[in-house]
Amino acid sequence: MIRKNRERVGRLYECCGFTLIELLVVIVVIGNLFAIAIPTYLEYTAKAHDLSAMANAQSLLKPANQVLLDGIETKFIHDPGDGNEIGDENDDLGHYIPNIFTLSPLVSAKVEIYNYFAAGSKISSIGLWVYSQKGTNDPSGLNGKKTFHIYMDGLTGASLNNF
Question: Looking at the chain, which terminus has fewer C-beta neighbours within 10 angstroms, N or C?
Answer without folding.
Answer: N
